[in-house]
Amino acid sequence: IRNVNILPPLLKIDGDLKIKEKENYILFVGKMDYAPNPDAVEFFLNKIFPHIRKVHSEIEFFIVGSNINEDLKKKWEKEKNVRVFINVPDVEPFYEKAVSFICPLRFGTGIKVKILEAMKCGAPVVTTEVGAEGMNVSDGKHLLIGRDEKDFANKVIELIENKDLREYIIKNAFLFVKKNYDIKVWIERIF
Question: pTM here?
């Protein structure tokens, strides 16, 4: 077979990066009928968020997703500073204003499109090694990788407290996504 290209997930990237003023929340986005996502939220709420809240007691955690059953929604919203948004028409404003996008996946395969979308929209990412699989990203340049619960929490705290680091990650991540996942770039490569 000749002239076959296997394409990565592609994003439509219009224009240049515009870094928005960040608000006091950490963001997770995902479909909750895909088992790794609710597991990641539970893991974050039980093992990571308490460490962050010890240092930043007013930080909020926004969960934006689809297919969230009412029991999970009620359970998560009982937690202090947790808000759940279901089936929002446009997720980009959530990404743009998040002080950090988190993806604490413990299992799952493939490139995590939610991470690419966060990078495209100017949300600095903290993820696990599982979350970063398949993307050829550099830890400390395009995103931050938390190796365990405490390290993950410390990476989020770094992004909350260090605007220079946040903007460094945001700018490098955007350029990385634009170079590797922009549909226009791939069309030019193929044709």
Answer: 0.94
Residue 31, SS3 per DSSP: strand
- Cβ contacts of residue 89 below 8 Å, gap of 6+? none
Instruction: Please check whether residue 45 is in contact with residue 82, taking contact to mean a CB–CB distance below 8 angstroms.
Output: yes
Q: Which tens digits make up the pLDDT trace of 18-33?
A: 999 999 999 999 999 9
Hey, CA dihedral for 191, 8, 125, 129, is it positive or negative?
Answer: negative
Give CA–CA dist 30/153, Å, rounded: 20
Q: Tell me, what's the pLDDT at 10? A: 87
The C-alpha atoms of residue 33 and residue 84 are separated, in whole angstroms, by: 15
Residue (of 83, 115, 155) closest to 11 by Cα position? 115
Residues 113 and 91 sit within 8 Å (Cβ to Cβ):
no
Is 188's pLDDT higher than 90? no
The tokens describing 164, both together, are 């220079």
Q: Tell me phi and psi for residue 141, to 5 degrees.
A: -120, -55
Q: Are the beta carbons of 104 and 128 closer than 8 angstroms? A: yes
Q: Compute how many other C-beta atoms are within 10 angstroms of the C-beta atom of residue 149.
A: 17
Q: Which residues of 44-63 are buried (b: 16+ CB within 10 A; e: fewer)?
A: bbeebbebbbeebeebbbbb
Task: Kindly compute the dihedral angle of the four CA atoms of residues 151, 157, 163, 168, in this order, to the nearest 10 degrees.
Answer: 20
